[in-house]
Design a protein that fits this description.
By secondary structure, the chain is mainly α. Helices cover 68% and strands 4% of the residues.
């Protein structure tokens, strides 16, 4: 801590003996705030990655269209539904303006992706494993974005976690339903679970008072890490299996019903 000396030697009303008196006033130390990421730059970066995530999801929708032998309109439909479906349902539930209605750049990107995929789908299909990693990246990003949007409008933590999972997975669920393929809900792979865990991470760290950038980064890394490990090692959650006792009980009831006249 420094000091500043305030002298009175220039005042005509101060005697000569008093003119040497100096007052020492403590100076407050300067607080220097260092911002590593400008919030405006972060917002623009997230927006760019959000569009990239929509494109990746649109590619997965277009691949379903290619497997079903659809025309270019079918490609566009499934690409757009997959690319913006999760965010649309999220915004409708939260009762806020739908994001692509305000700025249709996401839909435009999905439409352009569908047209391109109509001609190059077989080549992309041959690199499907690589696409899964891009999909994991998109899942992690939109999970954090959906969770953050819910928290920003004052939604409770549980609702924010649900909105993160909705943003990341509902588009794929609609895609699979329209394409008549097994839904991500019915497959044993870890997908929605990764989204939920990542959303919980972001909400938890945000609740502890950590910086927004730190919480978002952690939520992204957890989602991507869990999904990535599931892709690499084929992880899945244990499925429900009836116990042997219940199975015997059901068989006994079936046999007794068959024996009854």
């Amino acid at each position: 801590m420094g000091y500043v000396h305030i002298g009175f030697t220039d005042s005509p009303h101060v005697q000569q003996s008093d003119r040497s008196i100096l007052t020492r006033v403590p100076l407050r130390p300067r607080t220097v705030q260092t911002t590593f990421i400008n919030p405006a730059d972060l917002s623009r970066l997230v927006h760019v990655f959000d569009i990239l995530a929509a494109v990746v999801f649109a590619v997965s929708g277009a691949l379903v269209a290619s497997r079903r032998g659809m025309d270019v309109m079918g490609f566009m439909w499934l690409a757009v539904i997959t690319g913006v479906g999760g965010g649309t349902v999220r915004d409708l539930i939260l009762d806020v303006p739908v994001f692509w209605v305000q700025n249709p750049v996401h839909v435009a990107a999905c439409l352009a992706t569908a047209v391109v995929m109509h001609f190059v789908a077989p080549r992309v299909e041959s690199r499907y494993r690589t696409l899964l990693w891009f999909d994991a990246f998109g899942l992690a990003l939109v999970t954090v974005a959906g969770t953050a949007k819910a928290l920003d409008i004052g939604a409770p933590a549980l609702v924010a976690i649900a909105m993160g999972a909705v943003t990341g997975s509902v588009g794929g669920i609609i895609r699979d339903t329209l394409g008549h393929v097994p839904s991500v809900l019915l497959r044993h792979e870890i997908y929605i679970t990764a989204s939920v865990v990542g959303a919980c991470t972001y909400v938890g760290l945000n609740g502890l008072g950590l910086a927004r950038v730190t919480s978002m980064t952690a939520g992204f890394l957890v989602t991507f890490g869990v999904r990535g490990l599931a892709i690499k090692f084929g992880w899945s959650l244990p499925v429900f299996r009836e116990s042997a006792t219940r199975e015997r009980w059901k068989n006994a009831r079936r046999d007794s019903a068959r024996d009854d006249p």
